[in-house]
Amino acid sequence: MEKRKKRILFVCTGNSCRSIMAEAYLKKRVIEENLSVEVRSAGTFGVNGIKPTDETIRVLEKQGIDPAGYESAELTKDGIDWADVILVMEPAHREKVMSIVPQAAEKIFLLGEFNREANDVVIPDPIGRSPAFYKVTFRLIKQSIEELIKW
Which of 26, 20, 33 has the alpha carbon at shortest distance from 59? Predict the structure, then answer.
């Protein structure tokens, strides 16, 4: 019997910047490392079908990631139940997930907790900020995901 793939759900606020960047980058690494992982993302205030921000698209393209096909999704009970691990960007996202599915608590982690180089576990929201801020946010996500893969 084939072992089921590990399922990872990234959660941020609008699902147009941080969790999309995390989903796209981890999907790229899953292919490169041949990992048995499925990846999705959602937003605590996400609306289904919104394209990523222009800056998010530019950041992903610079990483060699095709942003086509990525669009926002609303955080739902089904999505939470689907995931083995839920990685959130800030404590408010953990609270929102637990308000929908209280028993999900043990599978929720702050993505930034994996980044040993960061001095804060919160990955800041770049929405409405400068292109440089998006790059900083992506770097924090990338460092965290590289440590997550080792874990």
Answer: 20
